[in-house]
Write a structure and sequence with these properties.
478 residues; Rossmann fold; DNA Cyclobutane Dipyrimidine Photolyase, subunit A, domain 3; 5-stranded parallel β-sheet
Length: 478
């Protein structure tokens, strides 16, 4: 028996019909109105993510229409748009999935005030993470700062809870408020920047489920070995789908257990490692919820005294992939062209920016925010602070990745570098990760003129490493 009236499902980062608690609750009513709010002046999403959002919205619209529903899109100030809507129609209840973004906390507090003013019942559901930040705390009630302890507590409390595909209630009849088109939101870049973004995977819930199955068949069992090799398809590529809620992490973990057995008892190192990466996402979101200042400031306050340097020229060369260090340049070019970068290479390019160039981690986080399809605020912030040594359970600052060593270890044949830096394609593998050290005759034979068709190193690795360590020692005096 359906509940009387119209329920609104406020859609944000949950473009799916499965494992969608808020949409399920709204569909217990006679009519269900899926609603997406967007403000063009918002900087919550970078350019690449806006592109994914465009196609994600289009796909979700099509999905809803197949289920006898629609997606209402309103553009402008969120609260004002809702106030106008509530004045226009009778609403029985409003539902949304919490995503625990501290920057949206003020909005939801204001929304609750508005709903109470209008005497409209509401409920926030659990639909973005595996657990709430209040559910996974240490015995003394404080948040975890060490991931291993967080993981152990998570495993102890982990209880599978997937929801099947929701049976939607019909869209309200004779509804007169006109929806904005996806195109009117102007989410796509003005240049054809995103033309290569979707070769590896297209937005949408069904595509997310397909990507998960492909990962199971080809890479999951060997994930621990393949995930660090950038020339292989050894990772899941699920991060954009998770970012936009086109798949719930609970479905990923439960599917892993169905395919490979219990996470606790599995004999597959690859599956266990992948599960830990999924829960690392959880850890990052919990951290940002408990410490919202992390968006701009280091979790470890001592790093506020670190002598970072602003250098727009070096930053720009790093962004363009023109550093003279092939593995770094390959990664930055892959990012610009595809909206994605291999996880191992992300660590290498981040280490190079903050430790070899001495540029603040916030600059790197801003660039990733604008260019990554999966630019989750929590993951992006926590990961940059991890590399910079100033976050939770962070890599020690004195752990400075050598681009050459990382390249030789994880891209020994130079397959990845040659793909993204084709000007180095004829260079022998002995020198592929150190062209500046190659004999002149070797460079000439490969058609390379350093400083012309491939840059000379923009910084001396050894000297920059020593300087970084000196700065770190100086910082510790405070």
């Amino acid at each position: 028996m359906k509940k009387k009236g119209l329920a609104i499902f406020l859609c944000a980062n949950d473009f799916r019909l499965r494992d969608n608690e808020a949409l399920t609750e709204a569909s217990f009513y006679e009519e269900c109105l899926p609603l997406f709010l967007y403000n063009k002046s918002s900087k919550a999403l970078g350019g690449a993510s806006r592109s994914w959002l465009h196609y994600s919205l289009k796909t979700f619209q099509e999905t809803l229409e197949k289920e006898n529903s629609k997606l209402l899109i309103l553009e402008g100030d969120f609260l004002e748009s809702l106030r106008v809507l509530f004045d226009s129609i009778s609403v029985a209840s409003v539902f949304w999935n919490e995503n625990y973004n501290p920057l949206k906390k003020k909005f939801f507090e204001s929304l609750k005030i508005l709903l109470e003013e209008k005497k409209i019942p509401y409920s926030s559901c659990h639909g973005y993470l595996l657990s709430t930040p209040e559910e996974l705390l240490k015995k003394d009630g404080t948040p975890y700062l060490v991931y291993t302890a967080f993981w152990k507590n998570f495993v102890c409390k982990y209880r599978p809870k997937t929801l099947e595909k929701v049976k939607l209630s019909p869209y309200p009849k004779d509804f007169k408020i006109k929806s904005h088109s996806v195109e009117s939101l102007e989410l796509l870049p003005s240049i054809s920047w995103d033309k290569e973004f979707y070769k590896a995977g297209k937005p949408g819930e069904e595509n997310a489920l397909k990507a998960l199955q492909v990962f199971f068949k080809k890479s999951a069992d060997a994930y621990h070995d393949k995930r660090d090799v950038p020339s292989l398809l050894g990772t899941s590529r699920l991060s954009p789908y998770l970012h936009f809620g086109e798949i719930h992490p609970q479905r990923i973990l439960q599917s892993l257990e169905s395919e490979f057995g219990s996470l606790v008892k599995t004999s597959s190192q690859g599956v266990l490692q992948f599960a830990k990466e999924v829960v690392w996402r959880e850890f990052s979101h919990h951290l940002l919820w408990h410490f919202p200042f992390m968006v701009n400031k280091p979790l470890r306050s001592a790093f506020e005294n670190f002598p970072w340097k602003k250098n727009k020229k070096l930053l720009r060369l790093w962004q363009k992939g023109l550093t003279g260090y092939p593995i770094v340049d390959a990664g930055m070019r892959e990012l610009w062209e595809t909206g994605w970068m291999h996880n191992r290479v992300r660590m290498v390019v981040a280490s190079f920016l903050v430790k070899n160039l001495g540029i603040p981690w916030q600059e790197g986080a801003l660039w990733f925010h604008d260019t990554l399809l999966d630019a989750s605020l929590a993951n992006n912030t926590a990961s940059w602070q991890w590399v910079a040594g100033c976050g939770a359970d962070a890599a020690p600052f004195f752990r400075i990745f050598s681009p050459r060593t990382q390249g030789e270890k994880f891209d020994p044949e130079g397959v990845y570098v040659k793909k993204w830096c084709p000007e180095l394609a004829k260079l022998p593998k002995k020198w592929i990760h150190a062209p500046s050290e190659a004999p002149e005759a070797t460079l000439q034979a490969a058609g390379i003129t350093l400083g012309k068709n491939y840059p000379k190193p923009i910084v001396n690795y050894k000297e920059s490493r020593e300087k970084a360590l000196q700065n770190y020692d100086w910082m510790k005096k405070f």
